[in-house]
Amino acid sequence: MSDGPVRPAAGEHAAAAVHQRVRDGILSGEFRPNRRLVEEELAAELKVSRTPVREALLRLRQEGLVLQNRGWLVRDHAPEEILEYLEARAEVEAVSARLAATRITVEQLAELEALIGQMEGEPNRRLFNEINGEFHDLVTEAGGNRVLAGFARSSKINYWTFSTPVLFTPDQDAVVDREHRELVTALRGGDAAAAERIARDHVQHTAEIIAGSLGLQRHS
Questions:
Q1: Which of 1, 158, 27, 150 is nearest to 86 (CA)?
Q2: pLDDT tens digits along 15-24
């Protein structure tokens, strides 16, 4: 793993650190669907014992990111599942954006603007996706509600890590860029209703693109 070993820690702290590291690897696409995760190898690489590794993998299983079948595997989700995740995230991000409209700081707004600038015209799709994730995480963080932030983390799953690829056209990317800027404009103006609507529509548009790409029928 590119981030290096987990620093020595005791008990639940070590398990939490391993959980975060492996979860990040799955969500970033570093660990692809159906990849085998070997406890001994992870423990050696992260310089911890097998106990926190097993605890972390058990937690990831509860979150639906790994399977236990004669060992551990990164779970490959069905296309329909990603639409359910996006349906849930649309509501979480909408409420977070509404709260952020009255709580966001000048520094957070500047960071959102910078992230948009990095995304626009970025040819590397993986890098674009990582920056996009940072953008959405920051909006959720700006909402200032730890419970919502927890829901956002638990429902975070990225369509680009699945075995079935979903490709966005340049026109669709342009819509994503425009919606990001509209959201920041609403946040900057303190318009909670507009921020909520834009955030919800933005995630729903992504779900529509995925459904169309995979030939799925979305429920209205």
A1: 158
A2: 999 998 998 8
